[in-house]
Amino acid sequence: MARSVREIEQEIRSLQTAERNQLLRDLISDIDGESEQNVEQQWLEEAKRRYKELREGLVKPVPAAEVITKARSRLKNES
């Protein structure tokens, strides 16, 4: 007889943290599929591109506090 989702969940919760984390990464990877395969490399390339633009003066840096303030304001206005 097949186990219930609740039984499986209880078993997963009994795993060590590292084992649970690995299982979650594997399950998320299955859900994301191939579209996420090279995401880490893509982010690295994006970071390099942005850094180059910053060094060459093509873009102006924005302080983190300003970015966070604007983001919070936008989120507040959407609610």
Overview features:
79 residues; single chain; mainly alpha
If you had to describe this structure to a student in words, what would you say it looks like?
By secondary structure, the protein is mainly α. 72% of the residues lie in helices and 0% in strands. It is built from 4 helices and no strands. The chain has helices spanning 5-13, 17-32, 39-55, 64-78. The protein starts with a helix and ends with a helix.
Number of helices: 4
- Oligomer status: single chain
**How far is it from the N-terminal to the C-terminal residue, by CA?**
47 Å
Return the string of H and E elements: HHHH
User: What composes the largest sheet?
Assistant: none
What overall form do the CA principal axes indicate? elongated
Count of DSSP E strands? Answer: 0
Radius of gyration: 21 Å
Mean pLDDT: 90
**Class from helix and strand fractions:** mainly alpha
Helix content: over 70%
- The fraction of residues in strands falls at under 5%
